[in-house]
C-alpha cells in the first residue's frame, strides 16, 4: 500500500520546530513535501484569546478534533481544506485546499495530545531546549517577525507557563526522538550557532547502529560525540550527544554510518546539494551554520526514508 509518510515535530512555542523542518524538507525535496503547522487549527484569533483569557497552548483553544481528522485523511493520501492562521495579523485567512505529497511534516504545539492523532505519524520528534534558551529564541523571533515587544513576550511566557507544564511538556513521552539544543557550561549565554545537541533515541523505532562511534574509540565522556544509555520519563533510552565545536570530520563520520545503511540514498548527506542543512537565523537575521543541527536533520530524514521502504 502506498501512502504519504508523516513526520510530527512537536514542541512549545519557539522551540525550533520550523528551523528543524527547513533542512529536512530540503533533503527530501521541497516538491515532495507538504508542510503543515497546527497553529492553523487555533479556535480563537489573537484578540479573542486576549478577551477570553485563554492561551494558544490550551487544548480548548484549538480544534484538535478537526486536526485529528485531517491527520487521518492525509495519512491515507486524501486532500483536506485546511484553516489558515496568520501570525502576521493574528487573524484567520481563507482556507487552503491541500493534497498531500509523498512526505507530510506536521509541526506545532499539540500534535501528540490525543491517541488518534499520535497514531497518524510514522516518526515523532519532540523539541525540548532548556527554557532560558527557548525564551531567548522566542523574544528574538516574536520581536523580529510577529510585532511583539520583548516585555510582551516575557509576560506571555509567564502567562503560558501553567499550560506549557500541563499540556505541552507531557507530550515528550510519546516521541521517538527528543531533541535538545543546549549551551556548554563555558558559554552558558550562547543561544545561536554553537549549541550542543542531546538526542534521546527511544526504542519505539529502529535507529541506525551508532555503536560504531564507541567501537572506533570515540564516544567517551571527553569526546565531542558521545553515545550512552539513560532513562527519559522513566523509560530506558539511548542518548547521542554532539558538541557545537565537533569537527566536520567527526560529524561526517556519524553521517556515514547512516548513509552506508542506505547506499542508494548517498546524496542525502551531500552538503553541496542540501545547503539548508544546519542553517539557523542569527540575532540580526544573519545565517549561521550548526553541525549538531545538520546531523539531527539527517537522522530524522533517515527515518522518513526508511519508512518509504515499507509504505511506498
Ligand atoms: N537549533 C537552533 N540553534 C540556534 N537557534 C535556533 C535553533 N532552532 C531555533 N533557533 C532560533 O529560535 C527561533 C525560533 O525558532 P523556530 O521559528 O524554528 O521555532 P518554532 O518552534 O517553529 O516556533 P513557533 O511554534 O512558535 O512558530 C528561530 O528564529 C531561531 O533564531
Ligand atoms: O505559540 C504559538 C505558536 O507559534 C503562537 O504564539 C500562537 O500560535 C499564537 O500566535 P500569535 O502569537 O502570532 O498570535
In short:
The chain has helices spanning 17-28, 46-52, 64-75, 115-118, 131-145, 150-168, 211-215, 248-261, 291-311; strands at 5-11, 33-37, 80-86, 91-98, 103-108, 123-127, 177-182, 196-201, 225-232, 235-242, 279-281, 287-289.
Q: Any overview of this molecule?
A:
There is one protein chain. The protein is α/β, with parallel strands linked by helices. It is built from nine helices and twelve strands. It has an eight-stranded mixed beta sheet with strand order 2-5-1-6-7-8-10-9. Strands 3-4 form a two-stranded antiparallel sheet. β3 (80-86) and β4 form a beta hairpin. α1 packs across α9 and α5 crosses α6. The model has no long low-confidence stretch (mean pLDDT 91). Bound molecules: adenosine-5'-triphosphate and ribulose-5-phosphate. Residues 13, 39, 46, 56, 87, 90, 109, 146 line the site of ribulose-5-phosphate.
Please report the number of helical segments: 9
Rg, nearest Å: 19 Å
Uncertain regions: pLDDT < 50 for 5+ in a row? none
Largest sheet: 8 strands, mixed
| Separation of the first and last Cα atoms | 7 Å
The general outline is: globular
Strand order of the largest sheet: 2-5-1-6-7-8-10-9
Order of helices and strands: EHEHHEEEHEHHEEHEEHEEH
The average pLDDT score comes to 91
User: What percentage of residues falls in helices of 4 or more residues?
Assistant: 25-40%
- Quaternary structure type: single chain
InterPro entries: P-loop_NTPase, PRK, PRK/URK
EC number: 2.7.1.19
Keywords: ATP-binding, Calvin cycle, Kinase, Nucleotide-binding, Photosynthesis, Transferase
Pfam families: PRK
Amino acid at each position: 500500500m502506498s501512502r504519504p509518510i508523516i513526520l510530527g515535530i512537536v514542541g512549545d512555542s519557539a522551540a525550533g520546530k520550523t528551523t528543524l523542518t527547513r533542512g529536512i524538507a530540503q533533503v527530501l525535496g521541497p516538491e515532495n513535501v507538504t508542510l503543515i503547522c497546527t497553529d492553523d487549527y487555533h479556535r480563537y484569533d489573537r484578540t479573542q484569546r486576549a478577551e477570553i483569557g485563554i492561551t494558544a497552548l490550551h487544548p480548548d483553544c484549538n480544534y484538535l478534533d478537526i486536526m485529528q481528522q485531517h491527520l487521518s485523511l492525509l495519512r491515507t493520501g486524501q486532500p483536506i481544506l485546511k484553516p489558515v492562521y496568520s501570525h502576521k495579523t493574528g487573524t484567520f485567512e481563507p482556507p487552503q485546499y491541500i493534497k498531500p505529497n509523498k512526505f507530510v511534516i506536521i509541526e506545532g504545539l499539540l500534535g501528540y495530545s490525543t491517541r488518534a492523532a499520535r497514531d497518524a505519524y510514522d516518526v515523532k520528534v519532540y523539541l525540548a531546549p532548556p527554557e532560558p534558551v527557548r525564551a531567548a529564541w522566542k523574544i528574538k523571533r516574536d520581536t523580529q517577525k510577529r510585532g511583539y515587544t520583548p516585555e510582551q513576550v516575557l509576560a506571555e511566557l509567564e502567562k503560558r507557563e501553567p499550560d506549557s507544564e500541563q499540556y505541552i511538556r507531557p507530550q515528550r513521552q510519546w516521541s521517538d526522538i527528543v531533541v535538545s539544543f543546549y549551551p556548554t557550561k563555558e558559554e552558558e549565554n550562547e543561544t545561536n550557532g554553537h549549541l550542543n545537541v542531546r538526542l534521546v533515541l527511544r526504542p519505539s523505532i529502529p535507529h541506525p547502529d551508532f555503536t560504531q562511534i564507541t567501537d572506533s574509540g570515540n564516544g567517551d565522556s571527553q569526546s565531542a560525540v558521545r553515545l550512552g544509555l539513560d532513562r527519559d520519563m522513566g523509560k530506558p533510552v539511548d542518548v547521542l550527544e554532539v558538541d557545537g565545536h565537533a569537527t566536520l570530520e567527526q560529524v561526517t563520520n556519524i553521517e556515514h554510518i547512516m548513509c552506508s545503511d542506505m547506499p542508494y540514498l548517498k546524496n542525502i548527506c551531500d552538503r553541496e546539494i542540501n545547503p539548508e542543512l544546519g542553517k539557523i537565523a542569527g540575532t540580526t537575521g544573519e545565517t549561521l551554520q550548526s553541525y549538531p543541527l545538520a546531523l539531527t536533520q539527517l537522522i530524522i530524514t533517515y527515518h522518513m526514508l526508511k519508512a518509504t521502504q515499507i509504505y511506498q
